[in-house]
Amino acid sequence: MIERLLLGPGPSNAYPEVLEALSQPVLGHLDPVFLSLLDETSERLRSVFKTSNALTLPISGTGSAGMEACFVNLLEPGDTGIIGVNGVFGERMCEVARRCGAEVLRVEAPWGDPIDPQRLLDTQSANPRARVVAVVHAETSTGVESEIAPLSILQETDTLLIVDTVTGLGGVPVNVDAWGVDACYSGTQKCLGVPPGLSPITLSPRAVERIKNRSIPAQSWYLDLGLIGDYVGAARKYHHTAPTSMIAALHAGLGVLLDEGLEASWARHRSVGSQLQSSLVERGFKLIAQDGYRLPQLTAAWLPEGSDEATLRRALLDGWSIEVGGGLGAFAGKAWRVGLMGHSARPESVERLINAVDALGLNGSLN
Amino acid sequence: MIERLLLGPGPSNAYPEVLEALSQPVLGHLDPVFLSLLDETSERLRSVFKTSNALTLPISGTGSAGMEACFVNLLEPGDTGIIGVNGVFGERMCEVARRCGAEVLRVEAPWGDPIDPQRLLDTQSANPRARVVAVVHAETSTGVESEIAPLSILQETDTLLIVDTVTGLGGVPVNVDAWGVDACYSGTQKCLGVPPGLSPITLSPRAVERIKNRSIPAQSWYLDLGLIGDYVGAARKYHHTAPTSMIAALHAGLGVLLDEGLEASWARHRSVGSQLQSSLVERGFKLIAQDGYRLPQLTAAWLPEGSDEATLRRALLDGWSIEVGGGLGAFAGKAWRVGLMGHSARPESVERLINAVDALGLNGSLN
Questions:
Q1: Selected residues 77-116 of chain A with any CB under 8 Å from a CB in chain B
Q2: What does the DSSP assignment read for B319-333?
Q3: Which of A133, B29, B274, B316 is least buried, going by the fewest C-beta atoms within 10 A?
Q4: pLDDT higher than 90, residue B364
Q5: What is the CATH number of domain B16-258?
């Protein structure tokens, strides 16, 4: 058995209660005991997303499946989608939308900067028939948080708002209803402290209406939210076999989070994130995300100059059993991504990592 | 904690080694320890599928995601697909193919009968440009096994063979290479004794070639086997975060199966299936699947006349903690589907069920 301290961009370490839930006997997907656990999971997700949306559930796939579920259900061929792009996951949204046959209007910002919500709104004003505006709340490739609240004004238009908060949910405030988000998806393996494999999503009543009024069925049967809604809703109609053990794990993880309290969890992430970021800066790392828009739970940082990041990262894993992530895109080979998410977001995690960094001689200020 | 004896159409009970694996600390999807576990999982899947296909892996979704992965990667809009339909899962294939923009030619058989392979071959001869022939090996809605081996002759044509063996794999012989199957998918929660959530699939070299030569990308980004192949293959390129804990569970379940031996597992399923089927017939149940084509691991049976199936099924769950499945389609309200799969395929399971059936007074021969 190998035990890692998981400080990469996800997965994070699972809460003990989650591993305990995973070790329990399997339940059937139509067992009344499981169905009430599923209902309770949806209810807990509503609390965590801060929404009263009826259609709130875990998609049977990872965060990218949640992304795809939102796009394939809300877009039809020929629709226009306005998409903010400031990292890998904005790019991914464009690719998924394109595969739905949509025309994509990109609103770009340099990697490391947030998306200016006003630019999304201006693009929507110039293209009022756009079906969706989509933006990543917490960019896992750069550690940047983009502001979502100003986009709530889209509720006054016919354009739906899709938000990716895979890395945000549980770690920083997410306010689906107050922000006017029509479709929001997350992942279990970040700030929820559950292994990867499910994608919590929630859709507003007007998004559900949109799905009902589609002219052709969603191109994905597996991710068809109309059909899935008939299973998680009152009809209990079999669609596919729900991943019951992983849903029990999510149920347990959400229980831990809500017992701690959302505000307390956000404060914990904020505290350890700022501890980490100042420790790294002291050691000659340079933070990639723009000041004022830094996620506490995911820090992307340039290593001190001359550092061999891949070798050092491997040494960290082999010598200290600590996993951090490498940079993506232009940051590959030169940056790390350090996650402090869910159960991993502890002061001890920062201490263990910084001790190892120091032991590795990774201290740019002394170079 | 509720412990069920899972004798429905899936999930089955998980092997103890599988629950043990699920309770282990989470690993990252790029951790070398996890990657070697993933490689070993693919190698074990090759043994179980009886194939040397390089592209053999667990899809990050349930069996239906595996089905969709095969169709969206192999079909393009305007292609023709010939599909055998003798139950729910053949119908589902048609729906998935249709959503890919394909024209579907149905080769039907009554529910409870197998698909005659010659009729599939004749339809292919009349439509030699058909892109795929697709058929369900083990129909979970009826308990029927259809013969796949005669379809190996499709290897001499330009038509690819897709086979659904969600309920077959591990319980009855599956011979991907000898049968000339180009794309084969299964599920973890049936005869593999692993919770639901992953879909093992394997693609032949000519299927991979077909994917490379597509004129447009697959409509699903999440299920794009070209991109996923770059992660499970030597490139190790990040696509989506692999569900590491569930893959560790599958790894463990395949280990149990291969330690027992495929032939021994098939024999065990055959033995308990025939024990169950004769016990049910003695009690006035009528088997739905045609004689000679009955799956041992999944038995669909009409209840003795006048039985209130839903009430009895609920009594079985509440009083004996035994889950069996209800009938689908025309069998709803009148039939049960009883699974003896993976870890659930034990003589004790049959005894517990039959004792309960007798206690419920469910004995048509006495009526």
A1: 92, 95-96, 99-100
A2: HH-EE-EEP-GGGTT
A3: B274
A4: no
A5: 3.40.640.10
